[in-house]
Amino acid sequence: MTDAKLTLPKTNSSPWPNRPFHRQYLMRQANNLFDFFEAPSMNPKGGFFELDDDGNPLDADNATRQIHVTTRMVHCAVLGSLIGRPGSDEIVDHGMRYIWDRHRDPRRGGYVWSLDDAGVTNGAKQAYGHAFVLLAASSASLVGHPLAKEMLADVTEVINTRFWEEKSGSVRDEYNHDWSQLLPYRGQNANMHMTEALMAAFEATGNRDYLTKAERIAELIILKHAVPLGHRVAEHFDENWVLDRNYEGNEMFRPSGTTPGHWLEWARLLYQLWVLGEKRLSWMTGAARALFHQSIELGWDSVHGGFFYTLDWDNKPIMREKLWWPVSEAIGAAAYISAFDNEDYFQAWYRKLWDYAENHVIDHQRGGWLSELKEDLTPTSRLFVGKPDIYHALQACLIPLYPTTGSLTKGIIEADHTAKHLV
């Protein structure tokens, strides 16, 4: 029997997310992540430190703050606030003020990629970063942060006027600091995270334009491109959205080939988008299940376990490292799909993925999750130094605990509302 044909024992088939002990396990793992990341990440000069493997700040004397780190920490602190973790609101405020006062460019508009204590270190205006600003502002609005409404309006205007491309139904990727040059590159990663953020903004505001944009991006990236490619998500395109199979870019953010972890991320986002769209677009669920299957069939290492980071177009591994975030996204996808699909396959893989995370990825000695493993699952740091952020692993822990009625924040709020009515 191969990994791809795992089935649950017929005598013990209750889904793990329904079991009290497993639910306690998930919340305990989430709390461990909060303990590892929240207080140690707080930079007294503003923003957040990135942490080494022991949980100590990297470059503590003059740390660079990248926008995706700042914004993701805000989003995760909102999750903490919503589930009732003390201290989270202060972290939300700390991050929101740094985004507004430092990442935001008040003269030219938009939000810069990175800063240190002296000022801007990379002034690029990237759709990827602006997607996470939209996510942070949308999430912070749910806990009533005073900057959330203004930031949400500001970043929405920037996205609509600078990044959104109506003809293609997608966002452009990157400008330089003063908006004077738009790079010809188009990528799915920025559009994927914009889809996530647009859904969060729709939930926060009720403005259907956000949802419509998210649906159009999904149609372009998945229905138009991934489905004809055998449910493999293409990453890199030119300005006319012609696939560039030979693209070679940044190994971390724009690696060559395809990235199975993104297929898994899209699998969950498609189900989420289908639910928010009142289950109108039926193609999304079939595509999501196929993306999950393909990520297992092509991306999972059947010898050692874990997902290869990237594959070439012949489905052979390019970068054989196993990172923490694909398994996190796989867990979230398996949990979300299982809420609507009773096929044993997704439940079986949910269990196998947690077995893998527990035995190889979670750092039980020091805290947090190991960011990178070699092919044989021994720790390495070729791509990442330390433990980059809380975002992926935390959502893997929390998604299985809450209703699949939209995003995780929406699920938490609805579960809390239901609990109040049951008291």
UniProtKB/TrEMBL annotation:
InterPro entries, A to Z = 6-hairpin_glycosidase_sf, 6hp_glycosidase-like_sf, AGE/CE, AGE_dom
Which molecular function term from Gene Ontology is one that the record holds? isomerase activity
Could you tell me which Gene3D superfamilies the record lists for this protein?
A: 1.50.10.10
Q: Which UniProt keywords apply?
A: Isomerase
Question: A Pfam family name for this chain?
Answer: GlcNAc_2-epim
Q: CDD domains from the entry?
A: AGE
Domain of life of the source: Bacteria
Query: What GO biological process terms does the UniProt entry carry, in alphabetical order?
Result: carbohydrate metabolic process
What family, per the record? Belongs to the N-acylglucosamine 2-epimerase family.
Q: Which PANTHER family match?
A: N-ACYLGLUCOSAMINE-2-EPIMERASE (PTHR15108)
Spell out the protein name for this chain.
AGE family epimerase/isomerase
* Species of provenance: Devosia ginsengisoli
